Amino acid sequence: GVGLYDLKTGKLVRIFERKTSNPMVGKPDIMGDNIIIPGVKNIQCYSISSGTVKWTSDVKNTTSILSNELTKEIYAFRTKGTNTVVYKINATSGNSLWPEGNKLKGAINNIKFTDHGLAIVTNILSSGKKGLVGKIANKTKGSGTSKVYLLDQNSGADLWEKSPKTKGIINHFYVENDGIIFGV
User: Between the CA atoms of 66, 43, 87 and 49, what dihedral angle is there, to the nearest 10 degrees?
Assistant: First the structure.
C-alpha cells in the first residue's frame, strides 16, 4: 500500500491498498480529496477521505503525475528510454483526453501551467559514449542540451513550429505573462 501522513502531526491519514502486481512506480499527486497514484499496470485515483478507488486509467509505468486544480486535469509522464511521453487524463473519470501520449525528446526537467499551454523543458543528455556505458554516464554526469515545448492543452500538439533547443542544460525557467525566460 501507499501511506499518506499528516505533515503537521505526523499521524497516518490512510493507507491506500495496492495489488502486489501493480506497485507504485512514480511520484503521485494530490488534488482536493483525490490522491492519484501511478503504478506498473495503471494509474489509480483514490478518495483520501474514504480510501475507495474512484477511477483507473490504463497508462502504464508512469514516472510522475501533475494535477492542475484550476482546470481539473491530470498530466501523466512516462519515461521511455531517454525520452518522455505525456498523457492528459480527466480528473473526474480517468478517461484519456488526448488521443495518444505526446512523445517528447529528452527527460523532463521542468513543467509550468500557462494560459497559453503546458510549458515543458526536457534535457537531452550526451556523454559521448554509446551503449549501456553511455546510458549510465548520461544519467550521472552527462552534458547536453535542453528543449522547450509549449503543448496545446486540448490536443497535446506542440504549439511552436520549432521548439527552442539550447547549447547546454537549462537551469533557470520562468513563465511570465508575455513570455518564457530561461537560462543555461
Answer: -40
Q: How far apart are CA 87 and CA 42, in angstroms?
A: 12
Q: What is the pLDDT of residues 79-94, one digit of tens each?
A: 888 899 999 999 999 9
pLDDT digits (tens, 9 = 90+) for 20-56: 999 999 999 999 999 999 999 999 999 999 999 999 9
CA distance between the termini of the chain: 40
Question: What is the value of pTM for the model shown?
Answer: 0.83
What's the rounded Cα separation, in Å, for the pair 64 and 108? 10
